[in-house]
Design a protein that fits this description.
The protein has about 400 residues and is α+β, with helices and mostly antiparallel strands. It has one domain. Helix content is about 25%, strand content about 20%. It contains 12 helices and 9 strands. Strands 1, 2, 3, 4, 5, 6, 7, 8 and 9 form a 9-stranded antiparallel sheet that branches. A hairpin with a 5-residue loop joins strand 7 and strand 8. Helix 3 packs antiparallel against helix 6. It is an enzyme of class 1 (oxidoreductase). Pfam families: Dyp_perox_C, Dyp_perox_N. This is Deferrochelatase.
Amino acid sequence: MGEGFSRRTLLGSGAAGLAVGVAGGVLGSEAVAAGPEPLGRVTVPFHGAQQAGILQGQQARVQLAAFDLAAGTGRDGLRQLMKRWSGTAARLARGESAGEHENQIALDAGPCALTVTFGFGASLFAEAGITGQLPPALAAPLPDFPGDALDRARSDGDLWVQIGADDALVAFHALRVLQQQAAGLAALRWQMAGFSRTPGATDRPMTGRNLMGQVDGTNNPRPGQDGFAAKVFADGPGWLAGGSYVVFRRIRMLLDNWENLPTDRQERVIGRRKSDGAPLSGGGETTPADLAGQNADGTLAIPADAHIRVAAPASNGGATMLRRGFSYQDGLLPDGSLDAGLLFIAFQADPARGFVPVQRKLARADSLSRFLRHEASGLYAVPPGAPEGGYVGQALLEG
């Protein structure tokens, strides 16, 4: 597919994270606040070549959820559900009433840059009786990685939904409406809420930070870069052409352990200065990291096990993902430690050439892994966007 993206497509756009991080954007969330519209009135069109929520802005809030089809839903029921959900998402993106099951939770708010993105898990194809349409990249599940501690009750699912907005009530309202509209056809499997920097919170547009305090998202790929579309959007099968694959991971950060490290040690774990995100090899935030650079004593400026070295495309055969993660904080665990970290979201053309090789290397060689626990996971095919009058997944369900 081509690499041209319209201004309409990129309105308020952003995409985030380092390989385990969050923040920053394709244009950055601050671009929304910098526009002429008040924050609550910013709209992101639901219809288009790609689904909204991939290239669009890093909103302040996210609701992530997965649904499982009810017994007997089949292809016809799934088609009915996707038509209903797509129509509702389009109305909410325009700031209109949800229609069916409108609950007035967000009655006084505008659209607030709302985006709703849908993905299909591998299990959906058998449940809906369309196994012949299962794309090869979903046929093989994500492998087990060293150190994984996955809760399967909070992983996978037939249908994946990402709802972003700059207001928490707007995002929750959308999820609640979709849940009610799915009654009898699909049931909620898991749900998680996350947050990012609120647009306008800084005095100038800048890359955000994750819960470890690191400037995060500097090297995320951007539209217009060579090979961007080929790295993010899938060639096929036919119903998926122009769509993508998304990997979701819930990654708990061991913040008590991390915060006990002195700042200079944290910087060596990451490979960047904490103050401004510049690589330890020198320069500013956007200066390319010099992986061969040395200190005066001959040691590597960026340590051999530093996160940015291990995760770099140059260290992984060019593997690249469009990361759009959000932080989360869900209170305390029984041992008194924080249940907080990252809701990692990464869009890519092929997870076997994107997420999988990078995560294998990170699990084996990244010094940051000592401060992380991967606790939930999912892989989903994200169909292309719907045209006006159409619905997401139409080519699959009517083809």
